[in-house]
Amino acid sequence: MLPEILLSCPLFDGIGPENLSAMLSCLGARTRAAQKGEILLAEGCRAQDVGILLSGRAQLIRTDYYGNRSIMLSIDPGQLFGESFACARTEYLPVSVAAVEPCEFMLIDCRRILSACTNACSFHSRVIFNLLQIVAEKNIALNQKAIITGQRTTREKLMSYLLLYAKQKGSARFTIPFDRQGLADYLEVDRSGLSAEMSKLKKEGVLDYYKNEFHLLKDTSES
Description:
There is one protein chain. By secondary structure, the chain is an alpha+beta fold. It has helices spanning about 15-25, 85, 110-115, 125-150, 155-170, 180-185, 190-205, and strands at about 30-35, 40, 50-55, 60-65, 70-75, 80, 95-100, 105-110, 175, 205-210, 215. The strands form 3 sheets. Strands 1-8-3-6 form a 4-stranded antiparallel beta sheet. A 4-stranded antiparallel beta sheet has the order 2-7-4-5. A 3-stranded antiparallel beta sheet has the order 9-11-10. It starts with 16 loop residues before the first helix and ends in a 7-residue tail after the last strand.
């Protein structure tokens, strides 16, 4: 039985459930499970698989020479991971994908997606088109992170992220996909410095928060 989340996965947009099972078989899809903290795709491994998160939550992580960790993206069920590197035929993965909580995921060899289908699958070209769109959208998301982390101060990085997230959600109240350490890793700042800045913004009446729930209270240009 197919996981229901696949029906909303953007990779299979435009493909009906009656054709999805046959397509996954054609693509040689494999399903795996991981516990919290386990690695779904490891840095240094060959970059050839496109991953689809079926349940749980994961993060795309970059670790520098000194072991400092930066969260590049948060991955939710139905979303892809590893696709940009696989499509680019990068020899080795420069990042890792780790489970934030117990999860299930699917792996598909990217070469099976990009190569001509031996079974003359009528929906194969649609999957290729969908994959191209997903890669483009992921690049936009990574560019947004670069803009956020390119801000000069911890305060500017935090507010840049929160304002962008609020705009995407269309609400001044929202829940971000990171705990405090995860947010610090995403913003590439020290956790204690981030906590201190959040406390200042709360005292100034700019925002309110509880754990990973935030409420923007006023225009930051006033702060």
